[in-house]
Design goal:
- The complex is a heterodimer of chains A (93) and B (248).
- With 93 residues, chain A is an alpha+beta fold.
- Chain A contains 3 helices and 5 strands.
- The mean pLDDT of chain A is 92.
- Chain B has 248 residues and is α/β, with parallel strands linked by helices.
- Chain B has an 8-stranded mixed beta sheet, sandwiched between helices. A two-stranded parallel ribbon of chain B has the order 2-4.
- In chain B, helix 1 crosses helix 9 and helix 5 crosses helix 8.
- Chain B starts with a strand and ends with a helix.
- The chains are: A alpha+beta (93), B alpha/beta (248).
């Protein structure tokens, strides 16, 4: 399990937890004090991260998340990408 | 548009969230007038954000020992600590077409009456994006919203006279890096209405209602028997269960 928190300046906290196998994301969890409309889309965002290689860039992950139609409020798909990169680099165990 | 104002009813934290769910559903279905409701609590509680991890936010053992009810909200945002009589919470249930689509604009607009009321009483509060009410000495409160097809739930909690020492014991604010400095700064980030004025909480709430109903048609109201029965069921089956409260 790799995890990381990305605090947006003057803004929300995005936390990510990743289960990684063979350099690939098996399971992802997104948590934080952000807003999401509709809220039921949290699971869709999480599954969109699954199957990605740990070498994916923040922009590649953000692009994948574009497929999930939802309003991210107080954070962006790119912020999730930044949290992802922090987690795979293992800055926080 | 005639507003319904509810300024009564003491309930558990779970029950308040259940009432929110029942009323926003009713409004969404066109079965209710737009409504402003003030909350009165029975116990100390932690309403936490919908997308937050239970174990990241709450000192579970402490909360259990002190019988602090931790309830996951319908809305996103952060965790807060509430004590009966020490915070002011209100919910607005409003048709979606009355609310700006832009989130920042909508928070500013829906909390404006409360900010104006505080200003008139002598508290230099102002809206701070995205969802906060601030004073130069710290944060006074925060809001959160849920959007349905035809309706928006907007609820806001402000500190009237909160016990911030207790808050820091139950919330895991910066607990990952425990240091006196971290706690001191968290304490500084919060300011309370009672730090700035002597008016009673009751008077502050009344001023807010006065500002809200200005130029509006309205009637004071109570929750109906059927609303309360529905909410009791939702409180029991959802907001007081570990299944919902600890699901993330």
């Amino acid at each position: 399990m790799k995890k990381a928190s990305h605090k947006i300046e003057d803004g929300k906290m995005v936390k990510i937890k990743l289960d990684i196998e063979d350099e690939t994301v098996k399971q992802a969890k997104l948590r934080g004090d952000f807003f999401l409309e509709p809220p039921e889309k949290l699971g869709r965002l999480e599954t969109a991260i699954e199957g990605l290689s740990v070498d994916s860039t923040a922009d590649e992950l953000a692009a994948k998340l574009e497929n999930v139609e939802a309003d991210l409020i107080g954070f962006s798909r790119r912020d999730i990408g930044k949290a992802f990169k922090k987690a795979v680099k293992g800055e926080e165990k | 548009m005639k507003w319904r104002i509810i300024n009564e009813g003491r309930y558990s934290e779970a029950m308040h969230h259940a009432i929110d769910e029942v009323l926003i559903k009713k409004l969404n279905n066109g079965e209710m007038r737009p409504t402003l409701r003030f909350w009165y609590r029975e116990n100390p509680s932690v309403p936490m954000g919908r997308f937050q991890s239970f174990e990241d936010e709450v000192e579970t053992e402490y909360a259990e020992e002190k019988e602090i009810d931790v309830v996951r909200r319908l809305t996103g945002g952060g965790s807060m600590f509430a004590e009966p009589g020490n915070v002011i919470t209100y919910s607005i249930y409003i048709p979606r077409d009355q609310v700006p689509e832009d989130f920042e604009e909508s928070y500013e607009k829906l909390d404006r009456f409360a900010v104006q009321a505080l200003n008139e009483l002598g508290v230099d509060a102002e809206y701070a994006p995205l969802n906060d009410i601030e004073h130069e000495s710290g944060k006074i409160g925060g809001a959160a919203q849920l959007r349905k097809n035809n309706a928006v739930l907007h609820h806001t909690t402000m500190s009237y006279n909160l016990n911030t020492t207790e808050m820091l014991k139950v919330l895991r604010i910066g607990k990952e890096k425990v240091s006196d400095k971290a706690i001191e700064s968290a304490e500084k980030r919060v300011t309370r209405i009672s730090d700035h004025i002597d008016d009673t909480r009751e008077k502050v709430i009344q001023k807010m209602i006065d500002r809200f109903v200005e130029k509006k048609e309205y009637a004071m109201s109570s929750l109906s028997k059927s609303e309360l029965e529905k909410a009791e069921k939702v409180a029991e089956e959802k907001f007081s269960t570990r299944n919902w409260n600890r699901k993330l």
